[in-house]
Write a structure and sequence with these properties.
Strands 1-2-3 form a 3-stranded antiparallel sheet, covered by helices on one side. Helix content is about 45%, strand content about 15%. It has about 140 residues and is an alpha+beta fold. It is elongated and about 85 Å long. The mean pLDDT is about 90. It is built from 5 helices and 3 strands. It has one domain: Double Stranded RNA Binding Domain.
């Protein structure tokens, strides 16, 4: 969907921020900033068309801040470099999913056999309920 030139352009628009990761890890966690936060300004991107921007805004609403920034955080690894790569990978995957065109649903009718099965099941259910009634005397 996106050409390599556009991907490289989008990667140049990303901003990263490192901070200390949470969780277990002893002294290492307290000394090293391995958590990486990727920020991408969707509305301010010069590499995306207006249609692509609106589609991303629509599909990724829950991930976009009020200022229009897409934020992805990774703290999987103890390595800042690996976390940065993970953020970029997830960013590209999110864009790919958001920009993928949706398939049109082709309306279909129930087959004759499925209609007959449904009616037969209804008859069986009705008979079962009927059998539970008290007999008329």
């Amino acid at each position: 969907m996106l050409s390599p030139d556009i991907i490289n352009g989008l990667l140049s628009e990303l901003s990263f921020r490192a901070s200390r990761s949470s969780g277990a890890g002893g002294q290492h966690v307290n000394k090293v900033s391995s958590r990486v936060e990727l920020r991408f300004d969707v509305a301010g991107s010069s590499w995306l068309t207006d249609i692509q921007k609106s589609r991303i805004q629509e599909k990724l609403t829950s991930r976009i801040t009020g200022q229009g920034e897409l934020i992805i955080v990774s703290e999987k690894s103890r390595s800042q470099h690996q976390n940065k790569e993970d953020c970029i990978e997830r960013f590209l995957e999110l864009l790919h999913q958001a920009l993928k065109p949706e398939k049109k649903r082709v309306p279909t009718r129930p087959s004759k056999s499925s209609r007959l099965k449904r009616l037969e099941k209804k008859k069986q259910h009705s008979f079962k309920k009927e059998q539970r009634r008290k007999p008329d005397i």
